[in-house]
Amino acid sequence: MYAIINDRGRQYKVREGELLRVDLLPLEKGAAVVFDKVLLVGKDGGLKVGAPTVAGAKVTGVLENQAKGLKTVAYRRIQTNRHKVRTGHRTQYSLVKIGKIEG
């Protein structure tokens, strides 16, 4: 069984028991996470497609960890005065273990 969910403008395909990497959630480690914007639910031999969401469907999970991704670096060079700028950032994310898909 799998589902396609919408979390704050991004769509993810999830299965029961897998880890999902989403943008940082303002929750504590071990907290329950519920995704109720389910766009599609796929079962053995059948699909439920929502218009825009599947009525009564939800995906539950547990917040496993919060961390930072790899550093992204951007260089900018202004040739006229030999000025160089190096900027970078590390995007924060949360790992959610998908528990149950209802729908």
Write the layout of secondary structure elements.
Blueprint: E1 2-7, E2 10-15, E3 19-23, E4 32-35, E5 38-43, E6 46-49, E7 58-78, E8 83-102
Antiparallel strand pairs: 1-2, 1-5, 3-8, 4-7, 5-6, 7-8
Describe, in short, the structure shown:
0% of the residues lie in helices and 70% in strands. By secondary structure, it is mainly beta. The protein has one domain.
Describe the protein's architecture and organization.
The chain has one domain (2-66, 93-102). The chain has no helices and eight strands. Strand 1 and strand 2 form a beta hairpin. It has strands at residues 2-7, 10-15, 19-23, 32-35, 38-43, 46-49, 58-78, 83-102. The protein is an all-beta fold. The strands form two sheets. A four-stranded antiparallel beta sheet has the order 2-1-5-6, with no helix packed on it. It has a four-stranded antiparallel beta sheet with strand order 3-8-7-4, with no helix packed on it. The relative contact order is 0.31.
Element-by-element helix/strand order: EEEEEEEE
How many extended strands? Answer: 8
Number of helices: 0
- Report mean pLDDT, rounded to a whole number: 93
What is the CA–CA distance across the termini?
A: 10 Å
Q: Biggest sheet: strands side by side, in what order? A: 2-1-5-6
- Domain count: 1
Coarse structural class: mainly beta
Outline:
elongated
Strand content: over 45%
Report the helical percentage: under 10%
Largest sheet: 4 strands, antiparallel
Low-confidence stretches: none
Radius of gyration: 19 Å
